[in-house]
Amino acid sequence: MKRMFSIIITLVFVFSTYSCNDVGSTVTDTASEETTAEEQSAVFKPFKYGITPGDYMFETDTRGVIVKHNVHNGQSSYLCPDPFCNHTKSTCQFNGLGPLNYTSIGNTVYYVKQDAESGKSVLYSFDADTSETNTVFTRDGMMTAVYAYEKRLLILWLEKYDFEAERYYFWYDIKTGETEKLGDEVNVMKPYETRLLNSVRDDRIIWSVRTQDGTSYQSTNLRGEDLKEHDFGYKYGHYYETVPEKDENGEVTYSMYVTLQGEDERKCILQNAGPILIYENKIVYAESIPYEKQKVVHVDRDGREDRDDWGGNVYVMNPDGSDKHLLLHTNEFLVGTSSDSAHPLVCGDYIGILIGEYHGDAIVTNRILIANLNTGEFVVTHK
Which of 20, 43, 50, 235 could form a disulfide with 255 if both were Cys (CB 3.0 to 4.6 A apart)? Predict the structure, then answer.
């Protein structure tokens, strides 16, 4: 089958003619590969997402409505607590919020919105358990983006919607109320240049820089200094590459290569892989099963079959490719992971994997498999 996968952590895709055929099955007897926790900690530090976990994953659905998913029991519900609200009109407190207009720390959602009466910009907090809303602070101008990293919020402020108007990013500490403006390398932008927050990872702010010539990526430290070009391939200090390849049936799968820190050798650690997620200190992936074992999940009007390449199996391994093992098996049709860098489907020890269902000839992903990375236990979201 041909399936488009979204990848939470953007890796470097290198289109190449070489393959990973010198390695065997990616599920191995790990007795000789396993390392002790002490050895692992000496080599790897977790790739830092800076997410303060709570009990929920938050995402924006296809209507632009914020949904919360309980990681413990799979219960999904709209963030808005009003049972009579359709969530798409101005009377809904969350109406009009895009992915960059809200974020979360634990079970508290923070979002920015313009007050219709005063015209000022307001940062609100909303408790996802109690449904209590509070005003955190109010400013002139417009706060248009907010991103959480640990216990701080990174906010974009604009004087007005104008390329030549004043604009800057600043940190807001939710404990102390203190603010810290980022350095001029980030906040001083050229005419017709837009610097958008992509994500904050491993104590680096990743920026999407859009100009009349196209889009590029840069990163700075948390103070907005040390500006440099950003390469998404670097994780844990090592360099990862994913290479698209075709299997014997002409279907596209991926191989992953890593060059370990301090080494020159580039080694293949995965082949015939599906969606690849690097989260904390694990690489999570699916692996293609033999064609004859693949279940037919859909036949289109022209008689073309769509098969489940991965067979509901999810695997994990260490960042160097060691200790590869099956995390879980499900009969659900798994199709990938979220592409929303502002709201990745991760929460503490839990990750979310999208479940595909066919409506006509189109795949929709209305449900999520939420899995514990340590135990392999999982729940499927439901309303």
Answer: 20
Cβ count near 110 (within 10 Å) = 21
Based on the structure, what is the number of domains in the chain? Answer: 1
Give residues with Cβ within 8 angstroms of 310, minimum separation 6: 274, 286, 287, 288, 289, 334
The answer to the question of residue 269 being in a domain is yes
In three-state secondary structure terms, 329 is: strand
Contact 198, 208 (CB under 8 A): yes
Burial classification of residue 208, based on how many CB atoms lie within 10 Å of its CB (0-12 exposed, 13-18 middle, 19 or more buried): middle
pLDDT tens digits, 200-233: 888 999 999 988 889 999 999 999 999 999 988 8
Amino acid, res. 8: I
Inside any domain, residue 231: no
The one-character DSSP state at 303 is -
**Domain assignment of residue 322, given as a range:** 12-47+262-380
Q: Model's pTM, two decimal places?
A: 0.84
Q: Which of 375, 366, 333, 287 is nearest to 59 (CA)?
A: 366
Residue 23 resides in a domain: yes
Rounded-to-10 torsion of CA 56, 52, 176, 159: -80
Q: For residues 369 and 376, is the Cβ–Cβ distance under 8 A?
A: no
In a domain, 337, yes or no: yes
